[in-house]
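User: I'm putting together notes for a lab meeting next week and I want to include a structural view of one of the chains we've been expressing. I don't have a solved structure, so I'd like a prediction I can at least talk through. The sequence is below, exactly as it appears in our construct file.
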Amino acid sequence: MSIRPTPRSVVLERLAYTAAAPLLAAAPNLAPDGPLNVGLLLAGAVGVGGAVAAVAADEGTGRKLMRNSPLVTALAVDITAMTTTGWGIDACLAAGWLACGWLIAPLSRHRRRLAPALAAPTPPPALTAAEPEEFEAESVEEWASPHPDDHPDPFTAGIRSMWERAGLPGRTLVITTDRHDGYDIDCTLLVRALEEGRPISGLTKAQVAAAVGVDETDVHLAPVQRQSDGRQGGPGWLEVRITPEAAARRRKAPTTREWWDDHIATGPIPGSSFVQKVRDEDRKVTHYRAQVPEELGEARVDQHALAAVLKTKYDEGRLFVTTDANQVLVSLWDTSPLAQTFPATRELLTPDKDGRWVTGYLGNGQPARNRVYTDRGAAHGLFVAPSGGGKTQLMALHIAADALFGAVVMLATEAPDEKTLALGEHTARYGVGALYMVRLLRTMAALMEIRGEMLWDDGQIHEWDPTRPGCPYSPFSGYLDEFLSAARHPLYGDEIMDLAENVSVKGRKYAVGIKVAGQSIYVQDGFTQLLCENLRENCIPVVLKVAPKKVNEMFKTLGIAAENIPDPLPRSFSPAEAGRIERVMRGEPEPPADSNTGGAGWIVEGTHPEVLRTLFINFKQSLDPYFPDTITPLTDHEITELDARGLWFDWTQPPRPSEFGDIEDHDEDSDEDRPPTSRGSRADLSSPREAIDAIKRLSNA
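Assistant: Thanks for the context. Below is the predicted structure for the 701-residue chain, given as C-alpha cells.
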C-alpha cells in the first residue's frame, strides 16, 4: 500500500503557521503597540471583514469562512494575549492555533476548483417572450455576409467563405472568381475595396496566401484596367492570381517560355522575353529568339552565365549569340561548328555579282563572306595568323576567288613551302624571297601609272569600276606572304614597305589590290600605321588563332572598340572526355588534347568581330577543281610598258646591273668611314657580292 505524498501547497502552508505561531505569542507581550503587533491586528481585522462578507454571500459561504478562519482565530489569540498576564496561556493558545492550522490547512484544501464538471451541461435558462426576437435579430446581424448576394457557384462561395474567415484581407471583397482551365484550384480573383470608392492599400501576397492556404510565391497581384462589362477599374480593384498547381507543374515540366522567364530573363539576358524556339535537325542546332523592350536599347548578354544555364561551357564553342538592336538570337549547337570541316568548292569561291564569295562559316551557321572589290575600287587583303593557324589555307581561298573573278594573280613569299608552291602553279607569277617581292611591288606601282593612262572603250580615262563596261585591263591582286619578314630585309626591306604603302593608298583606283599575309600587324613589329589603316579600310580582315594575351592589342590595332573586343578562342573545340575522376583514381594518363582550332578565328567586316571557321582546301589533292581552267595574264600593252621600264623579266634572277642603283667605288678607308646606309642608299647594290660586302662594312662599323 503506497502512501500518497503531501501536496506542496499544504507543506508550504504548514511552514507558514510554524513561523507565525511564535510571533503570535510574543508580539502582544513584548510590544503591544509595536509595528509587528499592529500588523497582526490589521491582518485579523481583514479576516473578520472577509468572514462577514462570506456570511452575506449567496454561495460559497462555508469555503470562504474556512479560508478566512486563520486570520480571525489569530486575531482572537492576539487580543487574548494582550488582556492576560504571563506567557503560559499565550503560548498555549498559539500552539493550539498552530495545531489547527497543521491539521485543517484551510488555505490549501479549500481552494476554488476551475476544472469543468463531468456532468452534462446545464441547459440554458428559459428565455422570456421578448428575448427570442432580440437574440434572433442580433444573430442575423452578426453573421450577415458582406459579399454581394449574387447566388455564387460553390467554388466562388468557398473562396468567399475562406476570405471572410481570414477577416477580409486588406479590407477587400471577392467579387468574381475565374477557374483556370485544366486545374482544380488555380484561379483568378477580382477583388474590390470593402468601402466603395476607396483604394486598396493593405492587401499583400502573404495575406492572400494565408487566407486560401497556399505558398506566398503562388500568389500574384496585378492592377485592373477598366473592364469590358463597364465595371470600374483603377486602385479600388485588384486582380489576384492564385496558381499553386501551375507553379508545381512549372517546376517539374516548364514550357520553353516559362523556362526562359525563370532562368534567362532574370539573369543572363535581363528583361528579355521569349519569342520562338526553332530546331534545325539538318544542321544540329537549336535557335532561341527573344527580345527586350525597346526602351532598354540593345540587349545585354552575359554569355558565361548563359552557357551555364544551357548546360554547356563558354569555351566549348557550342554557344553563339547574335544581337540586332533589341532582338536576340541564341544558337546552341549539338557540337561546335568551329570543330567541323567545311570543304571548299568552286561554287562557294566564285564571286557573285557584288563581288562577294564565301570564306567560311560563322559560329551561328551563317556564311562568312569576303569580297574581291569594294564600292571604292579594288579590295585589298589582310590575313593574320601564327604559324599553323591556317594562314596559307586562307590565302589559297582568296587566290582562288580572285582567279575565278578573272583577276591577274601574282604571289611572292619570303620563304618557300609546299603549299605556296602548289598555289604558284595557278598564278601568273610566283617567286620566293625579298628580292622577288620588291620586284613584284615595283611592277604593281608601275601598273598604277600605266593603267592611269589607258583609254577605255569610250575613249576616256576612268577610275576602275567593275560595273562600268569597256575596261581595257583586268583586276590585279598581288599576294605577299610573310610580309613582315621580307620588310625587315636589310637591303630591300625599306623599299618593300614604302611600295606597299603606296599601293595600299592608290591601287584601288586602278584595280590593283595588295594582299598582305603575316603573323603580326603591330607597328612595333615593323608594320606601319598608314599601311594598316589603308588595308583595314579597303578589305575585310581575317584574324586566325591569336594567342589569348594578344587578342586585345590585335583588335585595338584594327580599330575595334574596347567593348566589342571578343574573348580569346579555346585551345580546342572538342568537349573534354568524360571520366577524368576515374582516370585519376586509376592513375591513368589524360587523353591527348585535340588541337582543332586551325582555320578558326574572326572576320572583321564591321565594328563587331565575328567568329568563323574558314573553308578547307585539301592540298594533298590536285587544286585544279578550285581554279579556272586558264590563268589570266596582263595585257600586251601592260607587258610592253613594263618591259620598257625594265620591270618585265625573270624575277628569280640575281639583281641586275643598275636595277637598284650603282655603288660608287671608294677606297677601303672611305668605305669604312661611311656611316650606316639610309633607306635610299641601302638599295644601291648590283650584285650579291656587293650586298655581302656592304653587310660586312656595316658589321665593322
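A couple of points you could mention at the meeting. The CA atoms of residues 431 and 681 lie 25 Å apart. Confidence is low (pLDDT under 50) at residues 113-141, 663-689.

User: Perfect, that's what I needed.
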